[in-house]
# Entry
Amino acid sequence: MKRILVTGGTGYIGSHTVVELINNDFEVIIIDNLSNSQIDVLDGIEKITGTKPEFYNIDLADKTKTLDLLSQIKSIDAIIHFAAYKAVGESVSEPLKYYQNNLNSLMNIIEAMKTNNINSLVFSSSCTVYGQAKILPVTEQSPIIKADSPYGNTKQIAEEIIYDSIFADENLKGIALRYFNPIGAHESAEIGELPIGSPNNLVPFITQTAIGIREQLQVFGSDYNTTDGTAVRDYIHVVDLAKAHVIAISRLLENINKLDFEVFNLGTGVGNSVLEVINTFEDVTGEKLNYKIVERRAGDIEKVWADTSFANKELGWKTEKSLGEALLSAWVREKKYRGV
Ligand code: UD1
# Structure
């Protein structure tokens, strides 16, 4: 059984990926400092898979602790590094918090890989590296433009750190997965997206409004150059996204990667506007959403969606779940979590 260390494994994408790894006969070890997740996520993972992963709570930005822990955990075959801060707005007001956490943790992980002969790394990147692309859909070759936020910049710099580290070390190899907008929850509703505090992202805000925790959803901007004037994103079911990680890690472990450092877009290839998301949510759940159109949110781009042909062909992966299924799963999870 291959042993995979998953940093950020109790987080939203991390926990769904842990489930897929266990279901595909990997042994999982999680490191998470619970800064934006809760320990009982481990119980959800156990309910779904029958296995409770080994868990360590340390701060990966602490170099000594990280190197010590990784030398104690034996026989790690590969690492998936999710652990990072991800609130775009907060990163603008507290840039050093983002640079210190997101970059130091990555560098500490790579250093620990080198000392412990762990060669394979899968990294959580983001479509944010493309900014507002001139040509849509974006391919992996689309230009990387100056990031709009320190958060986005940490993803760009992180990819460079990984590239340079791999270039300098013949043993290391890695895959960066550029996520579009992950939404939804596991079909069991035992795990899901649970932002601490008021959600920044659209879908948790929708489900929390529908259940009555938030009074009203604000739709940020209706004057974009899109079909209905609201901004367009590529919303991907988190379970489809999680499955791509299993393929990426296997690709590295089985040595079928074509380059030492590869990059893949993970999206559906379809863009949907905010109003389309709201209408689909209302259709599939039968709930009526209280929403209001307000000014644009600072830093938002107008539209982005993925060209997924490279990931489809090279990884033999494509999304299977629709927007409606993803939104319904997020709603089922919200209700289960709130006991409704
Ligand atoms: C952004 C980044 C993504 C990053 C994520 C982390 C881009 C293109 N994407 O996603 O890489 O991982 O943040 O949080 O930079 N909206 C509303 N009302 C709300 C919330 C959102 O109308 O209450 C709208 C937004 O204006 C946007 C869409 O919904 O058009 C999606 O927003 P959100 O879920 O926050 O994700 P992004 O900003 O696209």
Q: What stands out?
A: The pocket of uridine-diphosphate-N-acetylglucosamine is lined by residues 86, 88, 126-128, 181, 200-202, 205, 217-220, 231, 233, 274, 297, 300-301, 304 (CB under 6 Å). DSSP finds eleven helices and 13 strands in the chain. The longest strand covers residues 120-126. The chain has a mean pLDDT of 97.
